[in-house]
Design a protein that fits this description.
Elements: E1 3-6, H1 12-19, E2 23-26, H2 43-52, E3 56-60, H3 72-91, E4 96-100, H4 110-125, E5 134-137, H5 150-160, E6 166-170, H6 171-176, H7 184-192, E7 197-199, E8 202-203, E9 214-215, H8 225-235, E10 239-241, H9 249-261
Parallel strand pairs: 1-2, 1-10, 2-3, 3-4, 4-5, 5-6, 6-7, 7-10
Antiparallel strand pairs: 8-9
Helix pairs in contact: 4-5, 5-7
């Protein structure tokens, strides 16, 4: 069971080695921007690390993307960028592209958001589909989010499940989104049939707060580190910490999870 970290994109493998990680996640472009990814300066090294099995690679799509949006100026560029990031991620040997579940506005019918997700997958299918798994990540806030509450996630899977999307379970997002972590993997598998990746994050905020502020596992007042470890054990898949790295925080989180999961 691999434990990795989200690291700076400049030199991901060095960052992963410094943290004692054997999986690595990073951005291929500005996470708050709309520019297409360019070839990574360490592309050959990244491909070699993936092919040798030294690391599993995951790419996170920019935060600004929203495939559910009813706004053409957001939804259409989002579709284009997801396709571009998927191609770039596949080219370096990544195992998946993580994309947030997205949302519609309070004045929209959320079913339109699910339909828009389906149109993105249908469009990709016309040209052979995405070149690697799209891992949809549950989100923490928003009453009109497509992947905060699991009842909405079920509706999303009704719309796109036939295209084989993957699932990334974020522990902070689930907890702050109002979903108890006890039994969370079984509940998700009943909906999606799979959990492909865990984002193993503590939280600075409380249950059902709707906030998305990650914390190191030892500094998570309401979301217990033991509960995060148990989610990984139940999911039996790679986990990535997206926690603060001040004073070696990510290395400490990785070491804790490894020790806990070895018991």
């Amino acid at each position: 069971m691999r434990i990795g970290a989200h690291v700076d994109s400049d030199d991901p493998l060095t960052g992963a080695r410094e943290r004692g990680a054997d999986a690595v996640q990073f951005f291929l472009a500005d996470p708050q921007g709309w520019k297409a990814p360019t070839e990574h300066p360490h592309a050959a090294e990244l491909r070699a690390a993936a092919e040798s099995g030294e690391f599993e690679l995951y790419v996170h799509a920019p935060y600004v993307l929203n495939l559910a949006s009813t706004n053409n100026r957001i939804r259409i560029p989002s579709r284009k960028l997801v396709a571009q990031h998927a191609e770039a991620a596949a080219a370096i040997g990544a195992k998946g592209l993580i994309v947030h579940g997205g949302h519609v506005t309070t004045s929209d019918d959320i079913q339109v958001g699910f339909d828009n997700w389906r149109k993105a997958f249908e469009g990709a299918a016309k040209t052979g589909g995405y070149p690697l798994p799209i891992l949809i990540e549950n989100t923490a806030g928003g009453d009109h989010a497509c992947a905060r509450r699991f009842d909405n996630l079920a509706r999303l899977w009704d719309a796109i499940g036939e295209f084989g999307p993957g699932l990334c379970l974020d522990t902070c997002h689930a907890f702050c989104g109002g979903e108890q972590l006890a039994g969370v993997v079984d509940r998700l598998r009943a909906i999606t049939g799979r959990v492909d990746l865990v984002h193993a994050n503590g939280s600075r905020d409380g249950f059902d707060s709707g906030r998305d502020r990650h914390a190191n596992l030892a500094d998570s007042p309401d979301l217990a580190a033991e509960a995060v470890a148990e989610v990984i054990r139940s999911a039996d898949c790679t986990a990535v910490v997206e926690t603060p790295n001040a004073d070696g925080g990510q290395a400490t989180d990785i070491a804790y999870l490894r020790e806990r999961l070895a018991r």
